[in-house]
Automatic annotation (TrEMBL):
<feature type="transmembrane region" description="Helical">
    <location>
        <begin position="6"/>
        <end position="27"/>
    </location>
</feature>
<dbReference type="InterPro" id="IPR036890">
    <property type="entry name" value="HATPase_C_sf"/>
</dbReference>
<protein>
    <recommendedName>
        <fullName>histidine kinase</fullName>
        <ecNumber>2.7.13.3</ecNumber>
    </recommendedName>
</protein>
<keyword id="KW-1133">Transmembrane helix</keyword>
<keyword id="KW-0418">Kinase</keyword>
<keyword id="KW-0472">Membrane</keyword>
<dbReference type="Pfam" id="PF02518">
    <property type="entry name" value="HATPase_c"/>
</dbReference>
<keyword id="KW-0812">Transmembrane</keyword>
<dbReference type="GO" id="GO:0016301">
    <property type="term" value="F:kinase activity"/>
</dbReference>
<dbReference type="InterPro" id="IPR003594">
    <property type="entry name" value="HATPase_dom"/>
</dbReference>
<feature type="domain" description="Histidine kinase/HSP90-like ATPase">
    <location>
        <begin position="252"/>
        <end position="358"/>
    </location>
</feature>
<dbReference type="InterPro" id="IPR004358">
    <property type="entry name" value="Sig_transdc_His_kin-like_C"/>
</dbReference>
<keyword id="KW-0808">Transferase</keyword>
Amino acid sequence: MTSVEIASAVLGTAILLSSAVLGLLYIRKIRNLSLALSELHSLNHKLEHDSINFFRKAWPILNSIGVSQLAAKIRWFGEDKQILLGESTECKCTQEFKQLEYGQMAFDVILRLPKKVLREGSMENLVLQTFFNILEQDMILKEEQVTSTQKRLERYQMFVQHEIKNIAQFINLLSTQVERIEEDKDKIRLADRLKKTLPAMAQRAQKTIQTMKDPSLSQEKEATFDVSEVLNEVVHMYDLPCKVLGSAEVTMRQELVLEIFKNVLGNFRDHNVGNDLTVYVADNAQPNMVEIQVQNRNIPGVTLLPERMFEPFWTTSESGLGLGLFLARELLKQVSGEIKFQQGSQHFGFILSLPKMQA
């Protein structure tokens, strides 16, 4: 074999080996990207379709496909949150902007990543699009939960109206029967019938009364009252170690204000963090507004997540439904009021603003 033939054979072998290595590397890359797709879906299922947690915890997967930095401004049920993951490297990267918005939720996302990740049809791009698709579906699911809750409240209103009509008809019929009874045997027969029907009717009436306690459905008339008196009523109701300082009068539905304070102060009770509560009522903090500051001392070891405070169905309490603060904010909107979370070096709590007269 000549030297030329030997060189040709060596070159051919090298080409075959190089092709084999490239093939193995390509197969490994495809396998890793396929695994990334599977991990995204598995992670989302494990986190129970929680948008914010999914956004945070999916970062290692995005980093593995070449994303060097992930930044986002999150607007979440009235609260803002900034998230920055990764570092700004010197690689030949480009920036990509993505915005997702549903109801009271929004993600404004900026990514730093190589252009190949954005290339249409690439596996990297498929992983990235899957990430955003899952995030979007989680937000849609949360929005459907909120809408469903609002529709349930509307159905409760229809239920109350229907039940009041039934109870009124029953009383009217009973009154007519009592007026017509003259003989003792008819009185005994009516008494026996009432023994069977009254317990069920009383139960329906009690259920209706409980439903009517929802102030969003209440037709209670406006009245002028002192906010501090309602606050003290809630404090005694929940047996909270709380001081209420200051006073201010408002003119609105008292039952609505009572429900707002029950939801806010009840949140401290449900999470066992209301051991050092102080409520400050200010009459002239804002023009034509009453300001209520609810403060509690910071508790070592307790991590607070402001961006999730007002998210419906999110809670760390075993006994709660995650609706209290959300409902408080929704009720305040009805009267052009507002509530904000605040945390300083020593205290955390909420600032509520109530108009002096209902809007």
